[in-house]
From TrEMBL:
It comes from the Bacteria. CDD domains: DUF326. It comes from Novosphingobium olei. This is Four-helix bundle copper-binding protein. InterPro entries: Csp_YhjQ, YHJQ-like.
Length: 134
């Protein structure tokens, strides 16, 4: 089962209206939310003070989850809000990536990588939506 297939099967989505870039962004936002949550949990177990990394990861996890939820909805249209949410997700992922990059932990490296991928996919989705709006 994939989220892309679920979106494609929506009654208001046809082969010509399915946005592949947005489907990929939804999938990566869901993964990023889980990875950021896991990283925050791992940060709590570290001996050093990781408070800022925990906060940044949890904020990013929540924003990614909200982005996936908004982007999954295909009934009607709310492109302006979707583009705003994608921008917020991109920025949150950039902040989280930068914070995690400060730490020499495998979980932080993995989280930074996921945030980078999610931000890239959200950029591509946002560009495809803006092209549709033009």
């Amino acid at each position: 089962m994939s989220i892309e297939a679920m979106i494609r099967e929506h009654p208001q989505v046809s082969a010509s209206t399915y946005n592949e870039a947005l489907g990929k962004a939804v999938r990566h936002a869901m993964y990023c939310s889980a990875i950021c949550t896991s990283c925050a949990d791992a940060c709590l177990a570290e001996a050093m003070d990781m408070d800022q990394c925990v906060r940044t990861c949890l904020d990013c996890a929540d924003i990614c989850a909200a982005t996936a939820r908004v982007a999954t909805r295909r009934t009607g249209s709310n492109r302006e809000v979707l583009v705003s949410q994608l921008l917020t997700c991109i920025r949150s992922c950039e902040v989280c990536e930068a914070e995690c990059a400060k730490h020499d932990h495998d979980h932080c490296r993995r989280c930074a990588q996921m945030c980078r991928e999610c931000a890239d996919d959200c950029r591509a989705a946002m560009e495809s939506i803006q092209a549709e709006m033009a």
